[in-house]
């Protein structure tokens, strides 16, 4: 991104090591100005309180307030990753969408609307 090497798997591993995050997927997405930004889709640890649909149907957006402290997550990531690999936006989701073969269905992730990001 902008000439810098980015390892999405490294970022995802760093996110999953943070308190309050059970799972994470990071995508490089273009914003409304055409710039590429890293967006972290995170499943909070306490998602068992919400009904899970077993991987069928749409992924629901989850408000991260009170579940994940995004500023603490960013600070933790900055300790182990270069600044350009810290996601610009965070979107809470209830589950990671999977394909029929069990891989992450990146097309099943919700649009990273700026109003949903933290």
Structure overview:
- This protein has 118 residues and is an alpha+beta fold.
- Helices cover 17% and strands 22% of the residues.
- The protein has two helices and four strands; from the N terminus they run H-E-E-E-H-E.
- The protein has helices at 8-16, 70-80, and strands at 21-30, 36-44, 61-62, 89-93.
- The protein has a four-stranded mixed beta sheet, covered by helices on one side.
- Strand 1 and strand 2 (36-44) form a beta hairpin.
- The radius of gyration is 14 Å and the shape is globular.
- Mean pLDDT is 86; it is low at 50-55.
Key features?
2 helices; 17% helix; 22% strand; globular; single chain; 4-stranded mixed sheet; alpha+beta; 118 residues
Topology:
Layout lengths: L7 H9 L4 E10 L5 E9 L16 E2 L7 H11 L8 E5 L25
Parallel strand pairs: 2-4
Antiparallel strand pairs: 1-2, 3-4
DSSP helix count?
2
The largest sheet is: 4 strands, mixed
Count of DSSP strands: 4
Q: Which structural class should the secondary elements be placed in? A: alpha+beta
What would the average pLDDT be, to the nearest integer? 86
The helix/strand series, from N terminus to C terminus, equals HEEEHE
Instruction: Give the strand line-up of the largest sheet.
Output: 1-2-4-3
- Tell the overall outline: globular
Helix content: 10-25%
Please report the distance between the alpha carbons of the first and last residues. 20 Å
Percent strand equals 15-25%
Rg, Å, rounded:
14 Å
Residue stretches low in confidence (pLDDT < 50, at least 5 long) are 50-55
């Amino acid at each position: 991104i902008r000439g810098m090497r980015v390892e999405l798997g490294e970022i995802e591993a760093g996110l999953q090591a943070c308190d309050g995050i059970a799972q994470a997927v990071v995508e490089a997405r273009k914003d409304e100005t055409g710039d590429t930004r890293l967006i972290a889709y995170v499943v909070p640890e306490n998602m068992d309180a919400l009904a899970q649909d077993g991987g069928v149907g749409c992924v629901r957006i989850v408000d991260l307030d009170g579940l994940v402290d995004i500023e603490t997550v960013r600070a933790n990531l900055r300790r182990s990753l270069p600044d350009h690999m810290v996601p610009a936006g965070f979107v809470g989701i209830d589950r990671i969408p999977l394909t029929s073969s069990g891989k992450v269905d990146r097309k099943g992730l919700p649009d990273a609307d700026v109003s949903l990001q933290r």
